[in-house]
Amino acid sequence: xxxxxxTVVMVGMMGAGKSAVGNALARALGVAFRDSDDEIVKAASRxxxxxxxxxxxxxxxxxxxxxxxxxxxxAPCVLSTGGGAYLSEANRALIRESGVAVWLxxxxxxxxxxxxxxxxxPLLRTANPxxxxxxxxxxRVPLYSLADIVVDSAADLSIEEMAQKVxxxxxxxxxxxxxx
Length: 180
Ligand SMILES: Nc1ncnc2c1ncn2[C@@H]1O[C@H](COP(=O)(O)OP(=O)(O)O)[C@@H](O)[C@H]1O
Ligand SMILES: O=C(O)C1=C[C@@H](OP(=O)(O)O)[C@@H](O)[C@H](O)C1
Ligand SMILES: [Mg+2]
Fold this sequence. Notes:
- It is built from 8 helices and 7 strands.
- By secondary structure, it is of the alpha/beta class.
- Helix 1 packs across helix 8 and helix 3 crosses helix 4 (57-73).
- Magnesium ion binds at residues 18-19, 37, 80.
């Protein structure tokens, strides 16, 4: 029997697989899965693009911090964040206090393949979304690299295989995952 002692907080770029892999990881560990984006959407009764459009990004970021603080006070679980959440020092401090940050690292080409056909990410609604993604990637990588654990994605690893890879990395950390 394994016991999760800290909330596993998935961080990284849009398209890295935080939501999909986080969900599979929670199932594998037998703990609850939460996604900060889903919590914000539920509380606002609006989609992410609607929140960005009507209330602005600053409003979204304030709700994101509230949601992280609330979920990190609860029982250990897997918590997937939105790609911008780990950029703020306040959010990183909350995560440090009661969680462990896992950066799902993926290269730009893989990220682009995963997000290019979606319209659900307001930050990519620009004239050249590929270039916008590149700029966000360059600016954010130094901050993601502050995460406690780094797990590399690969185009040929399924969601389940990625979840197993994260679980194996957590098993190296007795302060996070206890037992067999
Ligand atoms: N390892 C993987 N293999 C195949 N598809 C994946 C993998 N990880 C994520 N995906 C797909 O890529 C897209 C983006 O994943 P998602 O979990 O939403 O990323 P994030 O939450 O980091 O933005 C989704 O369609 C998801 O199903
Ligand atoms: O990178 C970002 O700033 C964002 C990423 C999105 O989440 P995913 O990383 O799950 O796509 C969502 O929070 C919002 O569109 C902003
Ligand atoms: Mg997500």
